[in-house]
Write a structure and sequence with these properties.
Its cofactor is Zn(2+). Pfam families: ADH_N, ADH_zinc_N. InterPro entries: ADH-like_C, ADH-like_N, ADH_Zn_CS, ER, GroES-like_sf, NAD(P)-bd_dom_sf. This is Zinc-dependent alcohol dehydrogenase family protein. By secondary structure, the chain is of the alpha/beta class. It folds into 2 domains: 201 residues, Quinone Oxidoreductase, Chain A, domain 1; 133 residues, 3-Layer(aba) Sandwich (Rossmann fold). It contains 13 helices and 15 strands. Strand 11, helix 9 and strand 12 form a beta-alpha-beta unit. Helix 5 crosses helix 6. It starts with a strand and ends in a 15-residue tail after the last strand.
Length: 358
């Protein structure tokens, strides 16, 4: 098969790779029908995630068709169209039993495209298939469903739920990439008073307004001032970091009100300074997190009901073998206007289910 292989910092190529095979009775082999690229893949290529070894196939978000299952797999069969979650779950360890699949100690967690070969390939082996893939209803297209592999559960769980967004809150989202935009969309489910988006890129700020931000500001134009002006000098109730660089995290800690929450989503490759000399007195809560994907079944129901924006987040489509071109487009989002780029054939678009008259 062909796959996108990481060859050390700064280097990847779309090349021949061995077909994956069942290694464990809980595995499934899945043909990849739709796959996307994450900001985290760019962090890996930058060298920010050093445990990713050269030779690793990247990618942790996909929709595909099951082609083979190990003897212990019960919930999916060959031919099923499934969402491959970015998090795999053994289902047995303490963390899985508490729903914290991201922290799985039984061989799951974030393994795809990280410590085992991932989804940016024609085929992928998914461990613990019963708990790590979700059969898809026909009402959800593969191009929408692929957004539920990572960006929606991440922004919702690590941003909105960790930040404890509530009615009337002022919510600032720093970073309006796909994760920040999905955080804006899912924060909106809680009726905040206002959502302010901060980014460096005008086209991403425009997308933020389309997805529900009430105000937007360039990160270089003193966004702290705007937040102060809009909150009578207090600061925001919730600030969500969706970038993954020290400047952005430190900005979040300057924008939060006393007693407020900073929810970090960004993957950081460098230390950020925690200004405890300012923060110790402010009663702030700072959360960090890897997504658990425990919200995926609920988000899937919302997507099927048309309550989550799918198409608005997908700006570019490619064939699977245009992987290198798709990376070029995604990694130069400033020039290309890319949000999510989705690769893969159109063979599984949504089947319209006519409503039955009672
Ligand atoms: N915690 C998790 O489980 C998890 C899961 C998935 C992704 N992530 C991380 O979330 C982050 C966002 O992902 P993405 O796919 O949206 O990435 P992205 O790179 O597409 O988006 C980041 C955005 O931040 C903007 N930006 C850069 N510097 C900035 C600054 N100083 N101030 C404000 N904005 C700035 C960029 O213009 C861009 O629009 C990444 O760090 C990614 O690795 C975390
Ligand atoms: Zn990701
Ligand atoms: Zn586990």
């Amino acid at each position: 098969m062909k796959a996108l292989v990481f060859q050390g910092p700064g280097k990847t190529s779309w090349q021949d790779a061995p077909d994956p095979a069942i290694k464990d009775a809980a595995d499934a082999i899945i043909r990849v029908d739709a796959v996307t690229i994450c900001g985290t893949d760019l962090h890996i290529i930058k060298g920010d995630v050093p445990e990713v070894a050269p030779g690793r196939i990247l990618g942790h978000e996909a929709v595909g068709t099951v082609v083979e299952t190990g003897g212990d797999v019960r919930s999916v069969r060959p031919g099923d169209r499934v969402l491959i979650s970015c998090i795999s779950s053994c289902g047995r360890c303490r963390f899985c039993r508490e729903g914290h699949y991201g922290q799985c100690r039984g061989g799951g967690g974030w393994v795809l495209g990280h410590t085992i070969d991932g989804t940016q390939a024609e085929y992928v082996r998914v461990p613990f298939a019963d708990l790590s893939v979700h059969p898809l209803p026909s009402a959800v297209s593969s191009h929408d469903a692929v957004l539920l592999a990572d960006i929606f559960p991440t922004s919702y769980e690590v941003g909105v739920l960790n930040g404890n967004v509530g009615p009337g809150d002022t919510v600032v989202v720093v970073g309006a990439g796909p994760i920040g935009l999905a955080a804006i969309a899912t924060a909106g489910l809680y009726s905040p008073g206002r959502i302010i988006a901060v980014d460096l890129d005008a086209s991403r700020l425009a997308a933020a307004r389309d997805l529900g931000a009430d105000a937007t500001t360039n990160a270089e134009e003193q966004p702290e001032r705007l937040v102060e002006d809009l909150t009578d000098g207090l600061g925001a109730d919730v600030v969500i970091e969706a970038v993954g660089v020290p400047e952005a995290f430190e900005m979040c800690t300057r924008m939060v009100r006393p007693g407020g929450r900073v929810a970090n989503i960004g993957v950081h490759g460098k230390p950020a300074t925690l200004h405890l000399e300012d923060l110790w007195i402010k009663d702030v809560t700072i959360t960090t997190g890897l997504v658990d994907t425990s919200s995926t079944p609920m988000l899937l129901r919302m997507m099927a009901a048309g309550r989550l924006p799918g198409a608005a987040l997908v700006t570019h489509r490619f064939e699977l073998d245009q992987m290198e071109e798709a990376y070029e487009v995604f990694s130069h989002a400033g020039e290309t206007g890319a949000l999510k780029v989705v690769l893969g054939g159109p063979q599984h678009d949504a089947i319209a289910v006519p409503l039955q008259e009672q």
